[in-house]
Amino acid sequence: MLENVRIVMVETSHPGNIGAAARAMKTMGLSDLRLVQPQSYPSVEATARASGAGDVLEAAQVCNSVDEALEGATLVIGTSARQRRIPWPCLTPRQLAAQLSHDLANAPQDTRIAVLFGREDRGLTNDELRRCNLHVSVPANPEYGVLNVASAVQLISYELRLALLGDDFELQESRSRREVMPLPEMFWDEPPATNEAVSGFLDHLEKVMAQSGFLNPQQPGQVMTRMRRLFMRARPDKMEMSILRGVLVALEKKMQRDEGR
Amino acid sequence: MLENVRIVMVETSHPGNIGAAARAMKTMGLSDLRLVQPQSYPSVEATARASGAGDVLEAAQVCNSVDEALEGATLVIGTSARQRRIPWPCLTPRQLAAQLSHDLANAPQDTRIAVLFGREDRGLTNDELRRCNLHVSVPANPEYGVLNVASAVQLISYELRLALLGDDFELQESRSRREVMPLPEMFWDEPPATNEAVSGFLDHLEKVMAQSGFLNPQQPGQVMTRMRRLFMRARPDKMEMSILRGVLVALEKKMQRDEGR
């Protein structure tokens, strides 16, 4: 269904942004890119920033007008950072994605969606925005809400991917069995330990494990990685770290005292 | 609450990405940026790409090591495009945002969150990833899932903003959405330990703690309750239990051998 979605960039000034948008699209599984009167294209900078998405960039269609870029579209979405004088139906990217996922699930063959992205300095014109069925606006810092155009392409493509394909990790990518590991609740009686405190404890634990003869420092294998993972995911609090440190100190003293006899 | 979140970029090669990340952060209301050994910084390119986020860029702290960048952090998140040999708890950005929003709502003063972003070409090292409590991975095209680092900063900052501040347009809806966020499911390489195994380990730990002299069996206080809570919430797997049992056995032998001299 992602193939029904087209990204249209209008009069982009910086070719780097075109390449970055192509890359953003490909990471989310989109491939239909149209460029309306790009200021400088093709360009070495666009190719560099596209990185592994050179195919999307090369297949991009350069258009003379927005009309040409919108050819065949059944639903046109305009991205906008601010509300215009006459307010349009305006969705967040998440609401838009939910809407499109609904449309596409019901009539995939008939739906051709185009999402318009405006110029770096002034976005889409009022005229261009009026040609859209819906507007989409990214919830942002009211003091500075101007996203880079390729970042906006990334965000909206991401929301579309999640709405259309779900956000599960690829099952087959994992060679291991699936287990459920719930995260700890954090209604807590003690403040969390700092990262330095946990690191210091893990170094200390390693030392005591070596002293005990359990850990061979020459052939440590994956033992400390596994211990690290256990304690990192448990997210110890300050009191727990202090108890465990106390135990390690007591064990060291006991082993030294006994050795010294 | 967004001020509790720090973005850490590790050994970034392209200064443009640093500027773009600063801009991405500011659009989402984040401002705490730390740069671990950036290849070329300060830089005209970073400043240009930061656009209106020059203040975030100028306030960025350059650090000599990841340790320095993580100073004071109570929760460290590593961004990663792939599963490593020993899988870590790994969330999607949306699951992460739900989790952090929960943590911050309950203990805002104590929580300092650092999100680590790796090098453009090879991400974070295994060693760096092992220092994280959680990993986060963006659901992406399995054929090409390599997001630009500034795009990744944008996406994760966006998810955090939405989870923490809600959606500008429909606050109530986004709040209720957050509450129904399902617990993340994890991929794990080892089956979980049984409850008996963890109980047996805790009894054994108590014995060794008493032998070491740390724990007074006549006045145990809450120490074992705290140890029990720590290990129960971590939900150890079989391999972890087997390592920890091995360590306890080695410690006992060492203490007995030394005493018997």
From TrEMBL, chains A, B:
Record's GO cellular component terms: cytosol
Keywords: Cytoplasm, Methyltransferase, S-adenosyl-L-methionine, Transferase, tRNA processing
Top EC class, one word: transferase
CDD domains: SpoU-like_TrmJ (cd18093)
Domain tRNA/rRNA methyltransferase SpoU type stretches: 5-158
EC id: 2.1.1.200
GO biological process: tRNA nucleoside ribose methylation
Chief location bin: cytoplasm
Subunit structure, as described in the record: Homodimer.
Name this protein carries in UniProt: tRNA (cytidine/uridine-2'-O-)-methyltransferase TrmJ
Naturally occurring in which organism (per UniProt): Alcanivorax borkumensis (strain ATCC 700651 / DSM 11573 / NCIMB 13689 / SK2)
Gene label: trmJ
